[in-house]
Design a protein that fits this description.
Pathway: Amino-acid biosynthesis; L-valine biosynthesis; L-valine from pyruvate: step 1/4; Amino-acid biosynthesis; L-isoleucine biosynthesis; L-isoleucine from 2-oxobutanoate: step 1/4. This protein is α+β, with helices and mostly antiparallel strands. The chain has helices at about 20-30, 55-70, 100-110, 130-140; strands spanning about 5-15, 35-40, 45-55, 75-80, 85-95, 115-120, 120-130, 145-150, 155. The chain contains four helices and nine strands.
Length: about 170
């Protein structure tokens, strides 16, 4: 059995504690969350949660079924990662010498990363891209002294005009 990496897109009611309930459901059942992003949608009453996780197909199916049972989850789908747009944001702070800066700048140009802060002994780089691009960038930077880094986690949206539907009714679960 092969482990599948997937992105789950959820539309949930924008209520206090809904994120905690989703995360607790994963934890109680022993499912791992590789990354998680949350934001309000164009409807302030609805938030979108993107969860990157992995598992065998049977496990992914079980995750979807269990998540659907949460009362505030209006919609869930497994994003087709080959057809969806995926992005992450990385901020990475590097300790640098004057001699290293030009090489780091060349790396940034290749990856289309931006240097957003520069001091005498450090710089901060911002990169947005697919998770694989972020991983490759960090690998190339690994010989340098990475002081600190943070990643947003993957967010994804399907291409084309199709939208993720959600139930507008008050009591959508009978």
């Amino acid at each position: 059995m092969t482990q599948e990496k997937v992105a789950l897109a959820l539309l949930v009611e924008n209520n206090t504690g809904v994120l905690a309930r989703v995360a607790m459901m994963f934890g109680r059942r022993g499912y791992n969350i590789d990354s998680l992003t949350v934001s309000e949608t164009n409807d302030p009453g609805i938030s979108r949660i993107t969860i990157a996780t992995h598992g065998e197909e049977k496990v992914i199916d079980q995750i979807v079924l269990q998540t659907k049972k949460l009362i505030e989850v209006r919609s869930i789908r497994v994003e087709d990662t080959s057809a969806a747009i995926q992005r992450e944001l990385l901020l990475v702070k590097l300790r640098t010498t004057e001699n290293q800066r030009s090489r780091i700048k060349e790396i940034c140009e290749i990856y289309e990363a931006k240097i957003v802060d520069l001091t005498r002994d450090s710089l901060i780089v911002e990169l947005t891209g697919k998770p694989g691009k972020i991983d490759a960038f960090l690998e190339v930077l690994s010989p340098y002294d990475i002081i600190e880094q943070c990643r947003t986690g993957m967010t994804t949206i399907g291409r084309g005009s199709a939208v993720m539907p959600y139930d507008h009714t008050e009591n959508h679960r009978a």
